[in-house]
Each structure stands twice: as C-alpha cells, then as structure tokens.
Specification:
The structure is a homodimer. Helices cover 28% and strands 26% of the residues of chain A. Chain A is α+β, with helices and mostly antiparallel strands. The first copy, chain A, folds into two domains: 135 residues, Nucleoside Triphosphate Pyrophosphohydrolase; 75 residues, Winged helix-like DNA-binding domain superfamily/Winged helix DNA-binding domain (Arc Repressor Mutant, subunit A, Orthogonal Bundle), CATH 1.10.10. The first copy, chain A, is elongated. In chain A, 33% of the residues are buried. The first copy, chain A, binds a DNA duplex through helix 5.
Chain lengths: 236, 236
DNA sequence: TCAAAAGTGTTATCACTACACCCATGG
DNA sequence: CCATGGGTGTAGTGATAACACTTTTGA
C-alpha cells in the first residue's frame, strides 16, 4: 500500500565540513563531477537512499569524502526552495561536520577534487550552498558559545593556546589569556597531560585532553567568553 | 532533464503547536482522518506540494487547522527513519508553532477533530510524533532561555504576572517576582500600557506590550532566569 | 643572551539572588 | 474591612573583566 496522489521528491544531504589549521577556519569543498554546474565548487552531498536515515546518509557521504569515522555531525536544517536545483526539485537537508583537519586523508580527497578553503576567501558556490554555509557558521558560533564542541576540531591532545585561538578565530575577538585559562579549567572538562607541545614555542605548552566523564555531565555548564553583541540569533 | 537512478520520496511537514491557557502549556492535536492509524491522535501534518517550500507547507497546514496567519513558526528538524511510517517511507520535517490559544478558532478545529491537550497528559501519538514533541519542548526551553519568544503565546497586551507564569510553567520553577520584573523591564523590550487587566485580581495588573523596535535590536540580549541545570543540551 | 610564547593573581565592577512589606480594590 | 493578588528596594554574594610581570628554552 502506498499514499496515492502525492508527488515524491528527491531528498539530498549536503555537508558543511569545518576544519581549523591552527590559524584560521577552513571549509572542505569539492568540484562537482556532473552536470549541472560541473566543475563548480560545491558542498559534498548526495541523495538519500531508500534504506538509510538522513543521519546515515550524512555519515556515509562524509566518510566517502574524508575516509573518517566518528566525526562530529549535526543536522542543521532543510533547504527547500522549489527551484533551488535547476534540474529537478530537490529537498536538501544540511549537516554541519567538525573534523580535525590533520586527520583528513588527502588521498581520498583527490578522487573528488576536494580542497580546503579559508572561510574568508570561499569561491562562488553552486545553488544555495552559500546560504547553507552562512547558516552553519551562525549555528557553530551560537552553539560554541554555550557548549564545548570546538574540541572536535582539534586532535585528542591539544594545548590551551590552541584552544584559545580556536575561540578567538570563530568570534573574531581577542580573549585575555588568564581569564580564558581560568574559565576553561574551572569547568573541569580538561585533564592536564604530562607532556608538552613544543612545535610553536621554545618553552612548550602542556597538552590537555577531554575528561570524557565530566564532558558528558557538564555539557551544558560551559561558556561563554563571547561579548554579547557577537552573538547572532540562531539561524533556524 | 532529471536526475536518473535515484529514488524519490514523500516529504511531509508536521507541526508541533504550543499554546498556553494561563496556567499550563497545551499541545494541539488532531484525530487522524485516514489510514493507517485512523482516529489516533497525531500532530497536524501534510505532504509537501511540488510548488511550495517547507516553510510554505507548514504555514499552509497551520492555517488549515487554526485559521491563523502570522504565526510564530520555526523549523525544528527532519525525522527520517526509513520505517517511521508503516505505509511508505516519508521524510518528515517538523515545525514548532507558538500561538495565542485565545485566537484559536474552534469552528475550524472541529473539522479536523482537533483538541488541546495539557502537556503532562498527552495521549499516545502515532509514529514518531512523541519524539517530535519531546524535541520541540527541548528546543522551546533552550531558545526561550535566551530569546524573547514566549510572548508569541500571549495576546498583544499582557501583564507581567502572566508572563512570569509562562516562564515558570516552561521550566517548572518558581521565580522571584521582583527579580523577574527587574530583569524583564531592564531589557526595554516591554512598553507599559495605560490600562490594567482586572480579570485576575481586584487591584488589576498593568498591561505591557512589545516595543517592536527594541525587540528586533535586542533579540539576543535577553534573560535568563533559568537555573543552569534545568537546561538540556539542544536536541539536534 | 635574548626573543618568543607560556604561565600565573589581584582588584573592581557588574549581575544575580534572597528576602518582606505596602498598595489597591471588589466583594 | 478584609482577602487577594500587584507592586516595589536593598544588601550580600558570586562571576566576570581588566590588567603586567616572570618563566622557559632553542637558536
């Protein structure tokens, strides 16, 4: 039995994939391999298959492009203008992914002509993909202001200066080092490691890692270095 | 031209419609008029038509049920388990609506066998609609903690005690009257009216209304009254 | 030895919490 | 005249913001 007299539509998933290279935020884009807009820059996406949920589709697509499993992935919103794709109507559900840029496997990316673009010099994107990126960035800012998710952009072990750069980059602001340290550590989400990262200074900075136990419990009790006026209303 | 070799799917919109009767939160449900699950309680929903966006579909559906225009409506998230509808695969995009329960037109509702249920005594819902309601409530709590949206549940003119009851009901908490007043008024979002509502006390409580100008500017600089541990992480 | 980044404490201000009495009115 | 709900101020506490010098070490 089926529902009759109703039009069926293509449903796609598009992934907004953020990375951080230590200095700035980057976005992973591919050169589209088929018409329309062949060879134009695009978010990584694909059609939802009959037997998979949207989350599963997003996970599959992300894995195809990056080779990664266990990536932070969150549904953003559906984009649905009837004419957003000139070929045929497609409902696109967008997902935000945060990945450690160092884990990204260049081998696999070449297959898709993928490239990391700095956020402030993105190429022109196909369809409404620029809207998706804007919405994703707003969501990331909003969420990161209250929840500890930026860790997802870093390796398992990272230093406090690295983490601070991440926050400063996202909100385009400067944070006092002492206040930052005190606040982050007071959440008890971070465990100090014994060794140091000497790659960016002679003295070296201690590594920290996530205390998974406290992380789960304190997910909401984090926050918020960000001047109020830097925060935009949620995009949804 | 079409995309070939891809399966097309039904796409529906489901509306989680919240109201407030002065004492408690209520949810507007309908008795489903067709199989499967005929006469079971359900969210108001419908299939997306070829020429409308999801927002337009949600607006249309909401108007069919309530007769209302200009309702607060926000996309929540897509629900997509392949077997969520036993008849056929349907991707459902859920929307949260906030309406002034008094404006609701009973005439129209009867056509759909609609009924307002108190949030703490909802009937069993079809499919995954209970998940949608739970997600919607989390979203509402989360958002209301930082943004002035609960006004949407009240008439244009309302009193401070009414507004306070709204917050207390949503977070199931008691708020000090003086602290509440000070905080709400300090946002400058409210304009005091000259007249009073005498329906709930002999002295009467002054009406307030939204200062639309300040409201737009200050959307983010609001509240929150809510104890930290009442706040769940966003559902998405 | 010095340049470059890491690390660390104190004070002032602001926001939030707790708390209790008077006011206006209709019945 | 009194019961009911509306309205108001202050003091204490905790969180945040501003601020500068010392430490380490590889080149």
């Amino acid at each position: 039995m089926k529902y009759s007299n109703q039009k069926r539509l293509l449903v796609a998933v598009d992934c907004i994939i953020f990375g951080f290279d230590g200095t700035e935020y980057k976005l992973l884009l591919i050169q589209r391999g088929f018409a329309p807009e062949k060879e134009k820059w695009s978010l990584m996406g694909g059609f939802v298959q009959p037997d998979e949920s949207l989350d599963e589709a997003a996970t599959r697509i992300l894995n195809q492009l990056t080779g990664l499993h266990d990536v932070y992935l969150e549904q953003l919103q559906a984009f649905s203008k009837p004419d957003r794709d000139p070929i045929e109507r497609v409902i696109a559900v967008s997902y935000v992914a945060l990945i450690d840029i160092k884990k990204y496997n260049r081998q696999i990316s070449n297959e898709f002509h993928a490239h990391w673009f700095p956020m402030n010099s993105l190429p022109k994107l196909i369809f409404d993909h620029q809207d998706m990126v804007t919405a994703a960035l707003n969501r990331l800012r909003y969420k990161a202001a209250f929840h500890p998710i930026l860790f997802e952009l870093l390796p398992e072990k990272f230093t406090l200066p690295q983490l601070q750069t991440l926050y400063e980059g996202l909100f385009d602001t400067k944070i006092d080092k002492r206040n930052f340290t005190r606040k982050v550590l007071s959440s008890n989400i971070l465990k100090k490691e014994k060794d140091k990262d000497k790659s960016s200074s002679k003295k070296g900075a201690f590594y920290y890692s996530i205390d998974e136990q406290v992380y789960k419990d304190n997910f909401q009790n984090f926050l918020n270095f960000i001047p109020k006026n830097e925060l935009n209303p949620q995009t949804e």
